[in-house]
User: Fold these one by one.
Assistant:
Number 1:
Amino acid sequence: MPTQIKTHRGSGPDDNAPHILVVDDDSRIRDLLARYLHDHGFRVTTADDAQSARATMRSLAFDLLILDVMMPKESGIEFARTLRDDSQVPILMLTARAEPDQRIEGLETGVDDYLAKPFDPRELLLRVGNVLKRGNAAPATGEIRMGDFIFHISRGELQRAGETIRLTERERELLRYFAQRPGTPVSRHELAKDADSGGERAVDVQINRLRRKIENDPANPVYLQTVRGKGYILYSE
């Protein structure tokens, strides 16, 4: 059976509206999501598997991917993992399984948020809006230095010796969050609330991933340190 790609147009969203790619092998869910998002002002393109999604992403730019976990041939998590090799497009993962271990696995690949099936369409709309706002939030200006590393806050760019280090959207968001309050402890609860995806355990995973990118020795962090009983603190120079 050939893969399917469909773009939903017509009256409603204008050409500047956020463009969402919905990837799900269930045609009923795919079409329901597309109609609902389209009716709420989004441009929507759909694909029925990772292969067709990857093909359409070569010619179209998207502001957000809504990606089902359980797909044949290539799972949503496998697809997200390969996407993160060269793309930072925000990803909202849909799953019929809401176990913490699966959410953690997705977050480790760079997924921005999770929504378990069945879900209220209004919650989907809120989560889509939150992910898009996090990506477009007005950042602080300037830069912070952590040894050999420089984080350009306005650009959301991390560099070392002039070389840009790839960040996921969540890692960029965390650095901006800490950069606005350097030297101030931030609780795991506050970071989990800000992420709205996976709870405090997920925050620990995200912090560990970030340490691997800004610390020379992630096991003994100098800049992004744990504050016992309080959370985390970023020290800059």
Note: The chain has a mean pLDDT of 82.
Number 2:
Amino acid sequence: MIHVIATDLDHTLLRENHALSKETAKVLSHLHDQGLKVILASGRPVPGLTDLNAQLGLMQPEDYSIYLMVHWF
């Protein structure tokens, strides 16, 4: 049984215009409503990921995101 879905955003979940399709948003929201943990992972700045979490209804204390800190040397 699946309990957690974690996914990257760019070139994975988002379309070329950097937005979620309505269909993808609907499916992820439905999975979350069914009790699955939906976790967005990204190297995007925090506000960009927060907006997507809000769009999907992933803003409860029990919801998680993975913010990747990338340092270029």
Note: DSSP finds two helices and three strands in the chain.
Number 3:
Amino acid sequence: MRVSVDRDRCEGNAICVKYAPAVFELDDDECSAVRVDPVPEAEWENARKAVAECPRAALTLQE
């Protein structure tokens, strides 16, 4: 599984960091960034939750 961030849509709300801190972080521009690629299997459920809860739909999941 892979996730990506659309930097044009991201507002830096950090919802993804809340649900999947092992997968996402905020970069120096306060935009979400992927920490690990591909996502470890143990983090799949957290990554799915982060994608589903993103208020700007800035995250894309590729299974």
Note: The chain has a mean pLDDT of 97.
